[in-house]
Amino acid sequence: MAAAEPSSEAAPPAPAAAADEPPKPLHDPDPYSTPPYGHPGPWAPAPPVQHPATTQAQAPTPAPVQPAAAPSGMEPPAPVAATDPALPPAALPASAAATPDPASPSAPGGPAVPGVPEGPGATDNPWHRYDPWAPVPAGPLQQTGVGVLSEGERRRQVRKRIVGGALALALASGVLGGVVGAQLERKGGFGGVKLPQASAEPTGRAADSVAGIAARALPSVVTLHVSGSEESGTGTGFVLDTRGHILTNNHVVEPAGGDGEITVVFSGGQSAKADVVGRDSGYDLAVVKVRGVSGLRPLPLGNSDGVQVGDPVVAIGAPFDLEGTVTSGIISAKERPITAGGDSGDASDVSYVDALQTDAPINPGNSGGPLLDARGRVIGINSAIRSAADGSDSGSGEAGSIGLGFAIPVNQGRRVAEELINTGHATHPVIGVTLDLDYAGDGARVSTKGGDAGAPVTPGGPGALAGIQAGDVITEVDGTRVHSGTELIVKTRAHRPGDRLELTVERDGRERTLSLVLGSAEGD
């Protein structure tokens, strides 16, 4: 058989339309045209971009390969455009992808494109300054792409973290400490405030303590409320016996007069009416008696002659009507000559007292109250205070205590109280002379002029019998210096009628000693 000759007929050419159509996917198109299957949209993958710098270092682009000649009678296949939007960028040959477009503005030597900034100001746009191909920092890369720190950098970073943590801890501790401190300062703690307190102690006190003395004496101390037709007042007194006799000051009961009323209030709150038994203005003492009261507790009487300066004392009374007030102090002086009263103008109500001086606070209302020693015994009857207002000794003024209180010695008070209870009157010891109270010299001078009572020296009296003459100056009594007529009266009143005194008398510039027996005169 003869060999078959090739046919001279050419194959029918492929339709031209088929070459222009993009490849169709194997599935139906997305009806919503969702990329990448629809038209390019905002989520479509960006085409690959070649860094402009890489084109400088590349070798010359090889000449494009010419397609093989098509058999005779056939048209060569049309080249696929690289810019065909229907084809994905990956379908382009590598050589075509690497070949820069001379017309691209990024290609070296390419023509300028209108709208693209050039020159020094071209980098003002942040998108132009962004360089995704910037060189990677030297050093090994971690999986995340971050450079690995060196050993020194890691140590510095650890130190920074430690220092920062310490500072943060100190700051937090300071804030917490400030909050806690403020809480403790304002509230004393986080719980309720509980103040420390001593445990309960026995209520008993030593017998010689102020509390012990007051506990025993208070039931025997009373407060007197006196009212009369013209005035009223408040004072203190204390129980003398179980029959209801109470000793107080004359100036306390004096406002009652002959038709006034006296109410006695005891420490327990009981009250009773009282009557005046007797009173004497020269001694400033009075005795009243309560009616219908039983169970009275008398205060024991001490001995004022044995009192020494510095001995502790306790005063009880009702200063400014504050009944049951207890104060304490010491004996600050003895035999202090004082006078009180004299409001009548004729000196008939002046009291002369050779007093005990104390710094125990005594105020108006304390008058007539007891002055007690360390054993709770009465050694004086509180009678007067030295007032800072007028500097006088007053038993009824409203000035407060300045630490100078005066009490009638209990030895004198006991004698006067007995006489007032027994007879209703008290007797006064007398010398039988009239004194010149205006004499400014040292001592007590016998007046040279007769008074209302007659001659300056009472004929047949104690003074006349002792040899005292008008104009004599008495300077001492029993060895104690006398500086005025008032002091001589006080020293005389401190004795009983019938007591013997040794007087030092100065006459015509010469001193002589005289012995005198005190006489007696009935008081008012």
Automatic annotation (TrEMBL):
This protein's record includes keyword Hydrolase? yes
Per UniProt, the ranges with Low complexity bias are 1-20, 51-71, 92-122
Question: Which SUPFAM superfamilies does its entry note?
Answer: PDZ domain-like, Trypsin-like serine proteases
Keyword Hydrolase attributed = yes
InterPro entries linked to this entry: Chloro_Bact_Ser_Proteases (IPR051201), PDZ (IPR001478), PDZ_sf (IPR036034), Peptidase_S1_PA (IPR009003), Peptidase_S1C (IPR001940)
> Sorted alphabetically, which keywords does the UniProt record give?
Hydrolase, Membrane, Protease, Transmembrane, Transmembrane helix
Can you say what this protein is called?
Protease
Species assigned in the record = Streptomyces griseoruber
